[in-house]
Design brief:
The chain has 14 helices and two strands; from the N terminus they run H-H-H-H-E-E-H-H-H-H-H-H-H-H-H-H. By secondary structure, the chain is mainly α. A hairpin with a 6-residue loop joins strand 1 and strand 2.
Length: 390
């Protein structure tokens, strides 16, 4: 054990850890700034309510990151662990349909209230990590066994799991999480080393998945496409036409971004957080960051996230181990895709989805499970560094 811990300290990826901490601390500061008015005027909370809650979230997330970082990633190939993760994910996704309640989207059941005052749990955040761990573990085991390209034993079972889980998330309904999970699964598949000829078979699975999603949307149209959600799609087409309704959030986001300039209006001096931007400490927090800290603050956040993503892809390219490659590619893709979905909604490139900005937005489940993902990446990074030094 002592030898193992010494090896960890020698190979610890300090730049990755420092960037992670900086993003969490900066996010905490911006949550305090963005949430004060909303906490007092809307919820009748103390001004520091969301700041304190996020501080507690980080008090759990950062130690969890360190614990996960020292667990050898090879344990995630254990079949009992993989099946356990799969059962937990499906259980939570099914359970949220019965006892869940709405998140940021009217009509969606996205959260489960935990007992003993432990707060709320969002199963889709767990599903993101479960996807990376499950698919990379299964494909790695098949890769080492020489059966990665077999249709009956590899492609059909794994894509059946993918289809079933995506349909469950879509039925919440959560379009943003569905898109992220789908793209993360694709990234792990592309890093698996599967033969190119199998991508034709995979494309047929995706075509079938598209048909199934179309059928679900047709049958559940009134449930899925609520007035609030339809408003988001209409606002996406032209937010200024719907400025008195669903387009107001996007337009005020534009105003906040434009007002920031190079240095911003100063920390705490945002105008748009005074009631113009709903829940400014959550998925639209980048608008407040842009307004208060300008291009400099925005660059700091995007630069930090870009560093983590590039670090993950660099690790994936440098390792000789297939399992390590898939884990690193999956984590890097998750953070990259979630960032793009968040910023795409804020800037009007895609409809708003309520997806958080990694390590910056307020949210306990998000920051804890993204920290777990980064802990896995840290362990893989340490292994690659040790591997190359041998």
């Amino acid at each position: 054990m002592k030898t193992y811990m010494n090896r960890i300290l020698r190979n610890f990826d300090y730049p990755l850890f420092i960037v992670y901490l900086l993003l969490c601390v900066f996010g905490l500061i911006m949550i305090y700034s963005a949430s004060i008015v909303w906490a007092v005027n809307i919820y009748n909370y103390e001004p520091s309510h969301f700041f304190i809650k996020q501080l507690k979230n980080l008090a759990l997330a950062i130690p969890t990151f360190l614990v996960v970082a020292i667990i050898p990633y090879r344990h995630y190939r254990n079949k009992k662990f993989l099946y356990g993760a799969l059962i937990l994910m499906f259980s939570l996704l099914i359970l949220v349909k019965f006892i869940g309640f709405g998140g940021d989207t009217v009509g969606a059941k996205s959260w489960i209230t935990m007992p003993f005052g432990l707060g709320n749990l969002q199963p889709t955040e767990i599903a993101k990590i479960a996807f990376i761990v499950y698919f990379s573990g299964v494909f790695a085991n098949k890769y080492y066994a020489g059966t990665l390209d077999e249709i009956r034993t590899t492609i059909f079972p794994t894509f059946s799991v993918l289809t079933a889980s995506l349909l469950l998330v879509l039925l919440e309904p959560d379009f943003g999480a569905t898109m992220i999970l789908f793209l993360v699964a694709i990234s792990v598949i592309m890093a698996s080393g599967m033969k190119v000829k199998n991508y034709l078979i995979i494309s047929r699975f995706f075509a079938l998945l598209g048909v199934l999603i179309g059928i679900v949307l047709w049958i559940k149209w009134e449930t899925v496409m609520t007035a609030s959600r339809m408003g988001r799609f209409l606002a996406f087409t032209d937010p200024f036409e719907y400025i008195q309704g669903s387009g107001l959030q996007i337009v005020n986001g534009y105003i906040a971004i434009g007002a920031g300039g190079l240095k911003g209006v100063g920390l705490g001096n945002s105008i748009q957080k005074l009631g113009y931007l709903p829940e400014p400490h959550t998925d639209v927090i980048m608008a407040v960051i842009s307004e208060e800290t300008g291009i400099l603050g925005t660059t700091l956040v995007l630069g930090g996230l870009f560093f983590i993503v590039m670090r993950a892809f660099s690790v994936a390219l440098r390792t000789k181990d297939a399992h390590a490659r898939m884990l690193a590619a999956g984590v890097g893709s998750l953070i990259a895709i979630q960032t793009l979905v968040n910023l795409g909604g804020l800037t009007g490139l895609i409809p708003l989805t309520g997806v958080t900005l990694p390590f910056i937005s307020y949210g306990g489940t998000s920051v804890v499970f993204l920290s777990i993902a980064l802990g896995i990446l840290m362990n893989v990074s340490m292994f690659v560094k040790y591997e190359r030094s041998e």
